[in-house]
Design goal:
Elements lengths: L1 H49 L3 H15 L2 E9 L6 E7 L3 H7 L7 H8 L4 E3 L21 E8 L2 E11 L7 H45 L4 H16 L3 E7 L5 E8 L3 H4 L3 E3 L4 H8 L3 E3 L18 E10 L5 E10 L7 H61 L6 H28 L3 H5 L2 H16 L4 E5 L2 H4 L2 H22 L4 E8 L2 E8 L11 H12 L3 E5 L6 E8 L3
Parallel strand pairs: 12-13
Antiparallel strand pairs: 1-2, 1-5, 3-4, 4-5, 6-7, 6-11, 7-8, 9-10, 10-11, 13-14, 14-16, 15-16
Length: about 575
């Protein structure tokens, strides 16, 4: 027995030594695991910090988080400008097919919204048991364990990291939470650096665009060229898919799209929409930037035809002068699902808009200076024609007329007298030209040409687009005032009919004075004139032509639509 007892006693220290060795090995493994995890965390921090592109930074953060805690699924939700919903959602662990089956990304309701409203770490054994859990949508993978950690940038909650389903069915522990919290701090610094770099790059691009616009102005670029340059550069720098420049229509509560870039430009260019119910109109009326998260479906923006399908975030910035006058509105829009326009983007855009307004004002002043130079040149030409050409022609006519008395041959005498008559007619033509050249702005504004332009511009508000106008001949001098009044009345009636009945997308107006007649043609591409429609307006047009000894025709071109041709003699 003693021998056996000695054997048992000798084995007991051996067993305790084995236990101690096993415990030591376990602690060594734990220390090695902690070392490896710290090493992985440092690598993740360095990987995230190396990136300067914000999108890549966000992607690296969510990928590193999934690796560090061995999570099957991970996501990073970026909180929108309203502070209540998610504007971006980046995922790891789901394929493109999975995402397509699940449907739209979450906006921040339920358990995801819990961290938005209460920005602090949240660790759950079973996420479905949480009171804020709404359950998963159809085709969404089943998830049980959950770890959520907020990401702060300079004390501001930028977004949240969401991790679910730790590999092996284990739960997320305090160490996992500490690791992700540490990564979140490093992520906040990396996001801030990326933002600052992005802002510096954007500011440099804005300065480059401003310099380009200044060079275009100084080199004599036209208003349309400068406007297109402004819209194009703003669209490129902000990553917008669409850019419109709208201008207010004088005397109305509407704005007209003067320039359209991107998307359906033909459907927007020339479109006239009211101030109320349109993004550009609201910015024009208020004089401050106006934004929306969903341009296509915002219930506030219902004016005009549907033209923004597939578009989401948008901003409209007024182009105003120092005295508060709004010259136009620059609207930028991104495709649906893109990031909203933030204050960081709108701030530089406002400065760019101020320069754009200055560019428009400079273009207007240059146009006024050119108009003044043209008028002064006309005055000079008129003086030269009156003082030189007419006097010499008159003297030549007098000389020929006196010389005709000494010509015995009847045929030759008649030819000289005809030449004198031709000179008289030439003098009359030159005097008429001088009268046209010396007509001042006020007098020109009362002329048929200017009044026809105003009538066409006023029709834009009811048509919804700008009609095309062409004019030929001496409309202000050759067309008698009483005939001009009839022409304007016919033009107004024709444009009104096109707006009310034709449902047209294009209207062309041609006005000319030639061959002793004034001819007005108005053609549209609408549905034509119904057989049983009212004809009282058309009868009035025909009576006006008949009373003046003119004609009125209504045609249906082969390409469709209606063409109205009204004419009257000039010698009424």
């Amino acid at each position: 027995m003693s021998v056996g007892g000695e054997i048992v006693r000798s084995r007991m220290p051996q067993l305790r030594l084995d236990e101690l060795l096993e415990e030591l090995q376990a602690r060594i493994d734990a220390a090695r695991g902690t070392r490896d995890r710290v090493h992985s965390l440092l690598e993740a921090v360095l990987s995230v910090g190396r990136e300067l592109d914000l999108t890549q930074v966000l992607r690296r953060i969510v990928e590193a988080a999934a690796v560090l805690v061995d999570a099957r699924y991970a996501a990073l939700g970026v909180i929108g400008t309203d502070g209540r919903t998610l504007s971006q959602f980046l995922t790891v662990g789901l394929t493109e097919e999975d995402i397509a089956r699940i449907g739209p990304y979450p906006t921040g309701r339920g358990l995801l919204g819990e961290l938005i409203h209460h920005p602090q770490s949240l660790r759950l054994e079973d996420l479905s048991a949480h009171p804020s859990s709404y359950g998963c949508p159809a085709h969404h993978p089943v998830m049980r364990t959950f770890l959520g950690v907020p990401v702060r940038v300079r004390e501001e909650v930028f977004g949240n990291l969401y991790l679910t389903d730790k590999q092996g069915g284990e739960e997320f522990d305090a160490e996992d939470e500490a690791v992700i919290s540490t990564l979140a701090v490093a992520a906040g610094v990396a996001i801030d650096n990326a933002r600052l770099y992005e802002e510096a790059q954007r500011q440099q691009r804005w300065l480059g665009a401003s310099g380009e616009i200044t060079r275009a102005l100084l080199s004599g670029g036209s208003r349309s060229e400068v406007l297109e340059l402004i819209a194009q550069r703003a669209r490129e720098i902000t990553g917008a898919d669409l850019a419109d420049v709208s201008v207010p229509v004088a005397g109305t509560d509407t704005v007209r799209v003067e320039l359209a870039l991107g998307g359906d430009t033909d459907g927007r260019a020339g479109l006239v929409v009211p101030l109320e119910g349109s993004l550009s109109g609201e910015a024009c009326a208020s004089g401050v930037p106006v934004t929306t998260a969903d341009l296509a479906r915002d219930p506030r923006l219902s004016a005009g035809p549907r033209r923004f399908d597939g578009l989401g975030p948008a901003v409209a910035v007024p182009l105003g002068r120092a005295e508060g006058q709004i010259d136009g509105v620059l609207m930028l829009a991104r495709e649906a699902g893109a990031a909203e326009f933030t204050d960081r983007e709108i701030g530089p855009l406002l400065g760019f808009a101020d320069q754009a307004a200055l560019a428009l004002e400079l273009a207007e002043r240059r146009r006024d200076a050119e108009q003044l130079a043209m008028l002064e040149d006309r005055d000079r030409i008129a003086r030269d024609l009156h003082d030189l050409a007419i006097q010499r022609l008159f003297a030549t006519g007098m000389t020929l007329q006196s010389a005709a008395r000494f010509i015995d041959h009847t045929g030759a005498s008649d030819r000289v007298l005809r030449a004198v008559g031709d000179l008289d007619e030439t003098i009359k033509i030159i005097r008429s030209t001088i009268f046209g050249l010396r007509a001042r702005e006020e007098a020109t504004a009362r002329g048929l040409r200017a009044r026809a332009v105003r009538a066409v511009e006023q029709a834009q508000a009811v048509l919804g687009f700008a009609p095309r106008l062409s004019m030929e001949g001496l409309l202000d001098t050759d067309v008698p005032p009483e005939v001009a009044e009839h022409v304007l009345a016919v033009l107004a009636e024709a444009l009104s009919n096109a707006a009310r009945h034709a449902r047209a997308a294009r209207v062309e107006v041609a006005l000319q004075a030639a061959g002793g007649r004034v001819v007005l043609s108005v053609q549209d591409d609408g549905v034509g004139i119904p057989e049983q429609g009212r004809r009282s307006g058309l009868r009035n047009l025909a009576e006006r032509a008949e009373n003046l000894g003119g004609s009125f025709e209504l045609e249906r071109p082969q390409e469709g639509g209606t063409r109205l041709v009204w004419s009257a003699p000039l010698g009424v």
